[in-house]
Amino acid sequence: MLAEGEPLTLDPALTLDATTQQYVAQIFSGLVRLDENLRLEADLAERWEMLDGGRRYRFHLRTEARFHDGRGVTAADVAFSLERATDPSLASPTASTYLGDILGAGDRLAGKSAALEGVRVLDEATLEIAIDAPKPFFLAKLTYPVAQVVDRENVGSGPAWQQRPNGAGPFRLKAWERGTHLVLERNPDFYRHTPGVRYVVFLFLAGEPLRLYEQGQVDVAQVGAGSLDRVLDAQSGLAPELRAYGELSIFFIGFNAQRPPFDDPLVRRAFAAALDVGRLGELSHQGYGQRASGLLPPGIPGYDPSAVSPPYDPAEARRLLAASRYGGPGGLPPVVYTSSGLDELDASLAAAIEMWRRELGVSVSVRLLPTGDYYAHLPEEVDNLFNFGWIADYPDPENILDVLFHSGAANNIGGYRNPQVDSLLEQARTEKDLASRMDLYRQAQGLLLQDAAAIPLGHGVNYVLVKPYVLDYALTAQGMPTLDRVRLAP
To answer: Among candidates 415, 23, 1, which has minimal Cα distance to 12?
Structure first.
């Protein structure tokens, strides 16, 4: 048993947050996947060929791959799933980001085309996907849930289909009682291997995870930063069961660059220089495992340990604000910070607001959105400043720098725009030489930091308690549990 948050959906095409993704990944499968070390490997596809210099991919499906009801997965199922995900009536929040490179995807998402031009079924076990330009990261994008395969008859059966999803993943949905628990049952016919445990039970809102773990009600529990001292206390006896997993993530304070006063880069730089980021990390309930100097986390290609965001310098912060077109704190419009929660501010956010008041003479108010659907509503609800966290969906700098800061990116919540940054990111998309490509991202990150596109805070570490009899449990650098490999000691 695990104590976890509840998924917002079990529809792969509508999956947006990491909590939901960990459930969807157990029930559904896609053409390709990332293994435990985030290396790309075949999944429903047994193999593939890259054609036309990287503009076209031909996939050959496994003959043994089957949906949970026993029906074989066909190329037509893959094509249907991609067309469904790009259907504008579905309003997938991730289709443009992860499927937008496929020929015709933009037109289909815009309602200009009834079909997805770049997907072609050749026979029952073979299909081709054509993209708009050779892109080294395209296959990795197909590992995201929006590209996973669903059963046409299942999803067409009505709104209740998610209570009986017919996926092709390592586990089947046994039960889902909203607000209480979800049970997964192993798929004995899973094409890669048979999962080692028969059932996995997730408890929702059943109490404090650490307390449930101590009471023996759950076998695996996430540990928040605020509980680490308690776990590490010699009296608890829990320290030997604690594991730490690094995460390919970035947490930052974002600016709404389309709205005053952060449409002026000098104001953004002033707010960045007025923050003691190290102190914020000590106070944060999110428990950043490592302070961020740049936007790319350690372990991702292109990570640059020499990248430096504006240092804490109150005098420089005041100078920058005075030099802005707003002329100082008195010329600023009201500044509102959008964050998540119910009625209590995170200690680090409260400290940031106090630093801006003390160092800049600026009062910042806060507007809280419900935590569970914060990211779903943020694009429409964002004020002047906002909290943001992102876990790389594949190990490539494109998935952070381009996906979050290109002016045309759907996840560019703050509407940041810099033609020079856009140009570098666009060049990197199709650059074949790895060293040259990484240099383009290095340059882009340097400009983003210089321009204070965001204030990097930290990179995450997941702390997990695991009972000694739970074997082969691990979290990937995306924070995804390897449940299909878990087994219990005899």
So the answer is: 23
